[in-house]
Fold:
Amino acid sequence: MENQNRRIRRRFKLWHSIVAILLLLFVLFRIWGSFKLKKKIEVLRNQGYPVTLEELDNWYNIPAGVENSADVYMDAFSNYVEWDSEARKALPVVGRAPLPARTQPLDDPNKLLVEKFLSDNEKTLTLLHEAASIDHCRYPIDFRQHLGQPASWLKELRASAHLLQLDVLIQCDNHNFEKALTISREMDDMFGMADAQRGLGYIHWRLGEYDQAIEHYNKCIKFSMDIQDMHTIALAFIEIGNVYIETGEIKLAIEYYNKSLKGLESMGDYSEMARAYNNLGDSNLKSGNYDKAIEYFAKCQEMGKKIGRKDIVGWSLFNAGEAFALKGDAESAMENAQKALDILNIVGDKLGIMACYKIFGMVFDLREDWEPAIESFEKCVAIGGETKIPYIQGEVHFYYGKMLKHKGDTEKAKEQLNLALNIFESLDTEEFVVRIKKEFEDL
Structure:
C-alpha cells in the first residue's frame, strides 16, 4: 500500500513538473515573441513608417491645397455600372467565367461580353485613369478614432480594380500593349506589366526590331522574377529564342528554347512545350540538321494531337514539309504541306497557309514544274504583303529567287533576290545576307 502511494506521489510530481516546464516554455515563447515584435516595430519606426494609429493618420496625409485623387476615384465609383449577378456570371474576373490560358486569346462570346461591360463603364474607366495621374490621395477616414469606421468605397475600389484588370485583358487581346502597360502601371499590376512587355517584345520581333524586342522581353523577365511567375519567364525564353533564330544566332536560340522547355516540363504545360519542340526543330532546320529537325517536328505534332491543338499540328506539319523539301524529298514535303494546308485553312492561319504555299513552290522547283512553282510563290508574296512581317517576306523572296534561278530566268531571279537582300540588310540579318550574295555569284 505504501509503495502504491509512493508511486502515485511520484506520478503527481512528474505531471506537475511537466506542466510547470510547459508553462515556463509558453511564458518564454511569449516574452521572446513580444521582444521580436518590438524589435520589428522599432525597425519600421526607424525606416520612417507609422507604428501607432495616430502616426498612421499623420502619415496617411496630403499637403494642404493639392488636388486629391480620392475625390476623382469616388466619382468614378459612383458611375460604376454593375451588371446583375446572373449576367455577371458569364464574365471573367468579375464573374465566374474562366480566364483563357496566358498565351491564348479570349473566345468570341467572352470577348464581346467583356467589350460590352467595358463600354457600359467607359465613364468610370476614364475617371480611374484621370485619378491615377494625380499625385496625392487620401480617402475620408480618420485612423485616430477606431478601425471599425464605415468605408463603403472599399467595395467599389475592388470592383474598379477588376474593371481595370478586364481593360488590360482586352487591350492585350487587341495587341494594344502600350495601353495595357500604362493601365498595369496605374494598378501596380506586375502580372499585367510582364504580359504587356512580352506583347511589346512580340511586336518589335515581328517588325524586325530585334534589339527593342530583346529589351522588352528582358523587362518581362524582370517583372516576372519579382513575382516568381516562372511560367511567363519560360514563355519569354521561347520568344527570345525566336529573335535569335532570325538574327542567325542559332546556338543562343537553342539555349533559350532548352531553358524554356525545362521550365515548361516541370509545369506540365504541353501546349507551350509543343511550341518549344517546334522551335527547336526550326533551329536545326536553319542549321542544316534536317533529320534532327524532323524529329523535333514529330514531337511537336504528337503533343499537338495529344492536347487537341490543330494549329500546332498544322505548324509542325508544314515545318516538317520544309525540312523534307530541303533534303530533296519532294513526295514527303508535298504530303506534309498538303496536310498542313487542310488544317490551317480551317483554323484560318494566314502565316501557316503562306508557309504551305512556299513549300509547294519548293517542291515544284525540285520537280522542275515551273508554272505551279511560280503560282505558289506568287500566292506567298500576296499573303506576305498582307502580314507585313519583313523576315517572312524576305524568306519568300529568297526561295522564289532561287527557284527562278534554277528555272534559268536570270532577270526575274535577280529581282526577287534583290528584294530579299534589301529586307535582310535592313534587318541586319547577316546569315541571310551571306546566303543571298552567294546566290548572286553565278547569276
Observations:
- The chain has 21 helices and no strands.
